[in-house]
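Progress narrative, work stream C.
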Amino acid sequence: MKNIAVIVSSGKNEKEKVLTALTFANVARKNKLFGDVRLILFGPVERMVAEGDKDVMKLLDDFASLGDKPVACQVVANNFNIANDLQRVQNLKIDMVGPIIKDLAEKDYEFLTF
């Protein structure tokens, strides 16, 4: 069974796309549509999390309740000056996503980018 990584980069101006990505990741994980589903936040979406967007936070919490926490990019968080805000989010891991993406690619994960 294939493994996937959902990478969400969109931001506030594309909230519908963000919610679509997060909903897909949740449904895919909950219904075991793939061997593994990883969720990576990488870009403007991190601001939505730092600002506590209720719709986004609910979907992130739902995803974390099904297994591994979503991961947000430490470099982006530092560049956007939101690292402290993201570290306060209980169901979110902050890490360097470049090496994570490299590792997943080497393990033949498929990537879906929103």
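Work stream C, second folded protein:
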Amino acid sequence: MFARRTAWDLTPTELAERVACRRAEGRLVVDGVDTNPGRCGILRPGEILREGLDRLARDPRALRYEPDPRGDLDVREALAGLYADTGRSLGADRSILTAGTSEAYAHLFRLLADPGDRIHLPSPGYGLFAHLAELEGLEVASYPLREPGPGRGARWRLDLDALAADLDERSRVIVTIDPHNPTGSFVDPADLASLASIAEERGLALITDEVFTDYATEGHARPGPSELGDAGPLRFVLSGASKVLGLPQIKVAWIGVEGPPALRNDALARLEFVADAFLSVSPLAASLMPFLLAHRDEIQTEIRARLSANRAALAGRVAAWEGVELLPAEAGWHAILRVRRPAPAAPDRPRSLDEEAFVLALLDRTGVLVHPGGLYDLEPRDRSGRPCEHLVLSLLIEPDRLSRVADGLEPLLAETSAGLDAPSLRASDEPSV
């Protein structure tokens, strides 16, 4: 009865079930993966939103409905100014508004690929993008990101050889996340230039997701803008209010279209038709955007301060934890902890950290929630190929919540470092909170 593309395994993960159970029972959950600014004590976005809503309530234009398939021109002009401020070009005539970046992906997948075609996503990565592709009947292929070697900074590199070897006649789109989530790595300019050459030669489109681009880590900066201009392959740049303004509830995002004029104009005309079929962007939300964008620096200053303080605090805690490393990052809202596997006590009794068992035990013993690295397809080995595990947590949460997360992690990580058998960490032991 149902489409094959919706034949997912909808069984909740054990971690999701245990979190839901604790919350239903009114038990403590210290959410260490929360990235919702409004739940993390980030105040300025909400303050500015309230002021914008007060203005909107007095604006007679709010009572009219005059949809533009490409999105409100005032918003697109404001976005053009935003990009110009950073030395980049995104003309108001080259952008399309959408109701969130997920919808932007869906529109682009419909535009660029037919059911059965392939898109290529980076790995590690965030599973949502694969689901969006599968909803359009597309086949998902992954290309690896390679961690830098010791002393070579925080920038992961695209494995272009592996990507090129996997391209075939059904390949249509290559997606990059710049900066990447959760590694926080910017795409290296040399990799981007090579990727553009591959895409142009093969007739593929590039989609670049830039939602975290404004949140470079202290001491790092986004590489300069691409020099491709009207040359190179057809390219699409995505971002949205969720991260740029810390306001996921606004549900406004945008697609910038770049590349050879003939291809670009054809893509814009087709995207306009797709957008016109849905007209999903709320005119009221769009009306708020120019005002909100004018206060972007205030919002981002607060968010960057939180991210910087939390990364420094976490680094200080992790420095005292044997066998644990905070991976360096160039940008983003997440932190990755790498946990080295302890040496076996004896050849016939191997010991290791099972990251899923660990996060379950952490939740049951302390109420602290973090994500296992496997959720993002982080490989269980370090840059030298040695076995390890990864834990992922948010840097956006309040400092006192981050401290509680670290307090919960520390004793369990100490047990692991001491060579505790993985089975004794399993949540089935149900230790008391």
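The CA atoms of residues 125 and 376 lie 5 Å apart. No further action is required on this item.
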